[in-house]
C-alpha cells in the first residue's frame, strides 16, 4: 500500500533492537484518515470472504481494528492481557511472549464473545516474531470459531512471524512488508 509506505518512510523512526517507531500516526497519535484507507484496503483484500467478527489484542491493535471494522460492518473483540476476577472461568486463554516488552503474559477472551459459527479476521499493527498473532489464532481455535485470516499493517519481513504463520496455513495480508531497515542510515527497504 503506497500511501502507508510513504508515511512510514516520512515519519517512521528506526530504533535499536529492530523496533520501528510509528508513534506519530499509528501507535500513539493516530491518523484516522489513514486508518480509513487501511480499512478499505483490508476490505478489498478480503472481498468475498464471510467475516462477522474482528479480533485484535490490546492495546495498540484496538484503534486500527475499530476503524477496519467499520469497513466490514462487524463488531470488534479485543483480547485482554490480564485476567480479571469477574470473568474468571468463562474465558478462553493462552500465553503470549511480548516482542517489545520481552515477557510472557496471558491473553483472554470471554467465551460469550467468540465461538462456533463465528468467522474471524485478526487485525494487528505489527507482525514481528508472530507470537501475538499466534496467540490470537489459538484463541479462535479454542473457541471453535473459524479463522478467515489476518490483516497486518506493518510486517517486519526479516523476522520469522510471517513465514511461521503462513506455513501453518494462515492467510496473512500485510499492507507494508519491510525487508530490511538500517538504524544508522534510516534506510527502509519494502518488499514489492
Ligand atoms: P510479535 O508477537 O509478532 O513478535 O510482535 C507483535 C506485537 O509486538 C505487535 O502487536 C506490536 O505491538 C509489537 N511490535 C513488534 N514489533 C514492533 C515494532 O517494530 N514497533 C512497534 N511499535 N511495535 C512492535
Automatic annotation (TrEMBL):
NCBIfam families documented for this protein: PRK09219.1, XPRTase
Residues binding xanthine: 20, 27, 156
Enzymatic reactions: XMP + diphosphate = xanthine + 5-phospho-alpha-D-ribose 1-diphosphate
Pathway: Purine metabolism; XMP biosynthesis via salvage pathway; XMP from xanthine: step 1/1
Matching Pfam families: Pribosyltran
Keyword field: Cytoplasm, Glycosyltransferase, Purine salvage, Transferase
One GO cellular component term noted in the UniProt record for this chain: cytoplasm
Record's function text: Converts the preformed base xanthine, a product of nucleic acid breakdown, to xanthosine 5'-monophosphate (XMP), so it can be reused for RNA or DNA synthesis.
Subunit structure as annotated in this protein's UniProt entry: Homodimer.
Phosphoribosyltransferase domain: residues covered: 43-157
Name listed for the protein in its UniProt record: Xanthine phosphoribosyltransferase
Compartments, record wording: Cytoplasm
UniProt-listed Enzyme Commission number(s): 2.4.2.22
Organism: Blautia hydrogenotrophica (strain DSM 10507 / JCM 14656 / S5a33) (Ruminococcus hydrogenotrophicus)
UniProt gene name: xpt
Residue numbers binding 5-phospho-alpha-D-ribose 1-diphosphate: 128-132
Family membership: Belongs to the purine/pyrimidine phosphoribosyltransferase family. Xpt subfamily.
Enzyme class: transferase
